[in-house]
Specification:
The complex is a heterotrimer of chains A (130), B (96) and C (135).
Chain A: E1 2-7, H1 16-29, E2 33-39, H2 60-71, E3 75-78, H3 79-85, H4 90-96, E4 107-110, H5 113-121, E5 124-128
Parallel strand pairs in A: 1-2, 1-5, 2-3, 3-4
Helix pairs in contact in A: 1-2
Chain B: E1 2-5, H1 14-21, E2 27-30, E3 52-56, H2 57-62, E4 75-77, H3 79-88, E5 92-95
Parallel strand pairs in B: 1-2, 1-5, 2-3, 3-4
Chain C: E1 6-11, H1 20-31, E2 37-42, H2 66-70, E3 79-82, H3 83-88, E4 100-103, E5 109-112, E6 114-117, H4 119-127, E7 131-134
Parallel strand pairs in C: 1-2, 1-7, 2-3, 3-6
Antiparallel strand pairs in C: 4-5
Classes of the chains: A alpha/beta (130), B alpha/beta (96), C alpha/beta (135).
């Protein structure tokens, strides 16, 4: 079965980013397909590679990046939400005249249409938030 | 339909709203702080009566709630079971 | 994409205190271009999104409430408001914006977009959807 997962909250502040990860992993382990993981609202903060959690804590951002690499998952940060919260890739840096980027590996920045498309193309859409 | 509630019933009306919308054949899964709603001795447990309810085991364990504390008839699932429930229901409503 | 799905956006949070209401409305506006069967539900504190007379000049935030009135132009005209949530908050339909759309099939007759529904009716509407978006 094909899933789209929406993540509405950032890492560490709320458990939703953790629950979404464990759900995604369990779905993949069961042989399901993840069409897309769409990060919205503060959820875009899951995609900054500048995160530095303490050594003895989970690294939520790296965990997403590894999941994307291992399973070739499309992980999208909403562009409008990312711009508001300062998550920047090369294209955004160029368009908006920013002097740095911070997007983590495996993520890309795109429009809200990607969420709607996920809802249309997937068998199930599931939202994690607060 | 699968209903997800992730907040404590003692902090907001999400469980109340979810159970008021639920139809026969729908299933409720309590996750994150939502698992506090499954505790038998708590006032909110009465909201679950007459509904099909599951609770996410890892979230229960994290909060130190043992299965013997749960209201009657509540099913405990792991993340794999969560995935199965999403598959078994035609859609998911997250009461955020 | 040839599939048409029934998509419902469920709004349960008040505006301004958090960004959920505004960013949810942004999804609705973008989603309108996908020509799906779209509807909106407003319940719990979400009913506060539709109230008249919002003036954000004193808090320095954008007043996005006029955008709801434009939804009809985007063919988003099935707006379900939970009666119980309104009543709990001491509100009536008169406290909400009058949202309308023009029916092309009936010589552009102006029709109400808002349907005031009981909890049981709202439950039926949710059950009839294919995809539910929550923010």
């Amino acid at each position: 079965m094909k899933f789209t997962i929406q993540v509405n909250e950032g890492p560490y502040q709320h458990q939703s980013a953790d629950t979404a990860y464990h759900f995604a992993k369990a779905a993949l382990d069961k042989g399901h397909e993840i069409f897309r993981i769409f990060f919205y609202h503060d959820g875009v903060n899951n995609g900054t590679r500048l995160t530095t959690p303490p050594q003895d804590d989970r690294n939520i951002v790296n965990r997403w990046s590894e999941l994307a690499r291992e399973h070739d998952i499309d992980m999208v940060l909403c562009v409008a939400a990312a711009q508001r919260r300062g998550i920047v890739d090369d294209g955004e840096a160029e368009r908006n005249g920013k002097d740095a980027t911070n997007i983590a590996p495996g993520f890309r920045i795109s429009g809200l249409g990607q969420l709607i498309e996920g809802g249309i193309e997937s068998d199930r859409t599931i939202v994690f938030g607060d | 339909m699968l209903h997800l509630v992730n907040k404590s019933p003692y902090d907001g009306s999400n469980l109340n709203t979810a159970t008021s919308i639920m139809k026969s054949g729908d299933t409720l899964l309590l996750i994150e702080d939502g698992v506090y709603g499954a505790v038998k001795a708590g006032k909110a447990a009465s909201l679950l009566e007459g509904h099909t309810v599951s609770v996410l085991g890892p979230d229960l364990a994290a909060r130190g709630i043992t299965k013997d504390k749960l209201a009657d008839g509540i099913n405990v699932v792991d993340y794999a079971g969560f995935v199965d429930m999403v598959e078994a229901n035609d859609k998911v409503q997250s009461w955020l | 994409m040839s599939k048409t799905k029934k998509m419902m956006y469920i709004n349960r949070k008040a505006p301004y205190g958090t960004i959920y209401a505004w960013e949810s409305l942004e999804v609705v506006l973008i989603g309108a271009a996908f020509e799906q069967d779209v509807s909106l539900a407003f319940m719990d504190d979400g009913v506060y999104q539709l109230t008249k007379g919002q003036d954000t000049s004193g808090i320095g935030m954008k007043n996005f409430s006029p955008t709801y009135a434009a939804l009809g132009d985007f063919e988003v005209n099935k707006i379900y408001v939970d009666k119980e949530s309104l009543e709990e908050r001491g509100l009536t339909l008169d406290d909400l914006q009058h949202l309308v759309w023009e029916d092309e099939d009936e010589d552009w007759a102006e029709k109400d977009s808002i349907h005031l529904v009981s909890r049981a009716e709202l439950s039926d509407v949710l059950a009839d959807q294919d995809v539910l978006f929550n923010f």
